[in-house]
């Protein structure tokens, strides 16, 4: 028996022991990425006839209609959904075939906040909607209180 026989006796386990011997935290091998804005959330392919739901998911008409006929629910959230709840989205394309905002003429990218008007289905960037609507709200506010 040596003098230092109990030098490794601890009342806790180290991170390495936890990971190797006790099945601790597993390192992620894959990164979760968001689907590009121009892809269907059901088929994961670029859409040709985009339709959206109120919670912000975009589907291709050719993918969502057979699914709704069979299951009658939202493919992502599982809530009840019918074809009447879908909104036809009208994206604008420039000469290069890229989607863009018709107000600011800026191309959409992965970091653009995109919004759609429910009544018309037109798609704009959030910045453009703020630019257009804030002066109007200011005008109405000033007009009502003068």
UniProtKB/TrEMBL annotation:
Catalysed reaction, written as an equation: S-ubiquitinyl-[E2 ubiquitin-conjugating enzyme]-L-cysteine + [acceptor protein]-L-lysine = [E2 ubiquitin-conjugating enzyme]-L-cysteine + N(6)-ubiquitinyl-[acceptor protein]-L-lysine
GO biological process, one term: protein ubiquitination
An example Gene Ontology CC term for this record: nucleus
One Pfam family from the record: Rtf2
InterPro entries: NOSIP, PPIL2_U-box_dom, Ubox_domain, Znf_RING/FYVE/PHD
Ranges where the U-box domain occurs: 33-106
GO molecular function, one term: ubiquitin protein ligase activity
PROSITE patterns from the UniProt entry: U_BOX
Superkingdom of source: Eukaryota
Entry similarity comment: Belongs to the cyclophilin-type PPIase family. PPIL2 subfamily.
UniProt-recorded name of the protein: RING-type E3 ubiquitin transferase
Species of provenance: Reticulomyxa filosa
């Amino acid at each position: 028996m040596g003098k230092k026989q109990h030098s490794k006796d601890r009342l806790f386990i180290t991170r390495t022991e936890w990971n190797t011997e006790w099945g601790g935290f597993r390192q992620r091998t894959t990164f979760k990425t968001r689907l590009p804005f121009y892809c269907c959330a059901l088929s994961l392919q670029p859409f040709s006839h985009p339709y959206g739901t109120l919670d912000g998911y975009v589907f291709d008409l050719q993918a969502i209609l057979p699914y709704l006929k069979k299951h009658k629910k939202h493919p992502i959230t599982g809530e009840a959904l019918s074809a009447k709840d879908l909104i036809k989205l009208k994206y604008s394309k420039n000469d290069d075939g890229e989607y863009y905002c018709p107000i600011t003429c800026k191309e959409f990218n992965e970091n653009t906040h995109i919004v759609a008007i429910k009544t018309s289905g037109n798609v704009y960037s959030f910045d453009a909607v703020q630019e257009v609507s804030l002066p109007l709200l200011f005008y109405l506010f000033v007009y009502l209180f003068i």
